[in-house]
Amino acid sequence: MHDTEHDGMVAFKSGNTSMNGSFSPSISIKRFITLWVGSIMAACVVLSIAILIIIGKLESLNTKTINDLQAIEKAHTLELILLNENRLTVTNKDYADKTSNDASHSTLQKAQTILNTMVVNAVTSDEDVLIDTIEKNFMVFSQAATSSTPAPSEQLQLLTDNLLTSLENYREYKNNEMGKTIQSSRFLSTIIHNWLILLVLSVVVIVGTGSVSLLRRIVRPTIELSRAAARFGQGDFSARSSVVYNDELGNLCQTFNNMAEDIEHREKSRIQFIATVIHDIRNPLAIIGATARMLKKKEMETERLNVWLERVIREVEKLENQTHDLMDSAQIQTGQLSLQINEFNLTELAEEIYTEQSEVCSSHVFVFEGCDDIRILGDRKRLERVIINLLSNSIKYSAQGTTISLKVEKRDSQAVYSITDQGVGMSPEDIKLIFQPFGRLTSTKHMAQGTGLGLFSVKKIIEAHGGSIAVTSETGGGTTFEIFLPLAGDSINQGTSDT
């Protein structure tokens, strides 16, 4: 309805659509990298633990192999000792000789020591059974070999054979056990080799796949964004970047697109604003120029001259008002709005404006209601332009013959100035946009000329006075603007205020 429209300030979207429809929903780059690195670490940890377990098992098997080998060696040594003892016992003619008997005791004691070691190192029940058999045979053999009464050679040989057979059984058992251990060690070594290969391949696959995917997710959007930014920088305001993935770069591309859309819309609004200003300036200048040329020729009658001079005055006033709007807008946007603060009667100002408008504007019916002596602190000239601007809007956008109500009142600790018309009204969406600079609502911009700076400046000037402005409207149901300003006792300090 009023002199403003959406200026292209589009809320940044979440990036759930792309410019070319190639959007791919996906996890964020941060989460992707975390999962990627986590997968690599998990693969390494799992495989490393498995390898450590296998290596520990392999070391245990190696130790068992060494023990089996030592046991076989001891059994072999024991066999040699027993064979030597049997040879000495059978062939010694002076067996009862003390020296020979002492040597036999020493040899058998050495054999007993080896047998005791074998007993201690036994680890399985089968091994215990075999060693127990060896101990029994050795005990019988030892008693026969060291007896004071020599045993028959045949009996001694039989005892020796029994003992050697039990030793051979033990050695064969240990050989079989050592063979099984060696076979298990080879199997585990193969497993370790395969696990190492699997570890390397797993890491290579994970790193390779993740790297390729990461490059696709980073390089492609970056190139797309770089190209779009380059085109945009060269003046192609329609340049946009494709939003391929729903991640950080996707959000960045969408943010760029929204920014580009906003700048493009602002640029169009700026160009339209310049065209409007030129149009609004051209007509008054044409009238002023035509009047000046007629005055120069001195061909105009006094009555007609007065009419043209009145017209020149009105057009100059329009130019002055437009200049003030432009100056206010420039000062507001640069943060240098300077207010000349003085105490004055708002009711008196409102009544003056009402009287003036009632006299010069016969197309509408004006109704005024005001309290006496509502004093505020403010810049009287700027607040006067604010009220005239709002009143002008109500006149522009309401049908001829309709009523425009003006009201000044005290509400709580504030002075409230309201303007109500019976015009075309605004939708809730339009109300959100009417105070944006450089634009006008599309639905009403054909109804009147204007720069679109009016309500933007109005809002900023009111806020600079410590006040606020509210709008109540509905499509086809008219509009009410309410200006809230602090009373003199609660207002800003008197003097010059820069905002």
Which range best describes the helical content: under 10%, 10-25%, 25-40%, 40-55%, 55-70% or over 70%?
Answer: 55-70%
Largest sheet: 5 strands, mixed
Query: For the residues shown, what is the average pLDDT?
Result: 78
Distance between the termini: 29 Å
The SSE string, one letter per element, is HHHHHHEHEEHEEHHEEE
What is the SS-derived class?
A: alpha+beta
Strand content: 5-15%
How large is the count of helical segments?
A: 10
Low-confidence spans:
1-23, 442-452, 492-496
Number of strands: 8
Rg, alpha carbons: 54 Å
The 3D shape can be described as: rod-shaped
Strand order of the largest sheet: 2-4-5-7-6
Describe this structure in words.
The structure is a single chain. Helix 8 (380-396) runs antiparallel to helix 10. The protein has a five-stranded mixed sheet with strand order 2-4-5-7-6, with helices on one face. It has helices at 29-91, 98-121, 125-146, 153-233, 248-297, 302-333, 346-360, 380-396, 428-431, 454-464; strands at residues 338-345, 365-370, 375-378, 403-411, 414-420, 468-473, 479-486, 495-498. The protein is an alpha+beta fold and 499 residues long. The model is unreliable at 1-23, 442-452 and 492-496 (pLDDT under 50). The chain starts with 28 loop residues before the first helix and ends with a strand.
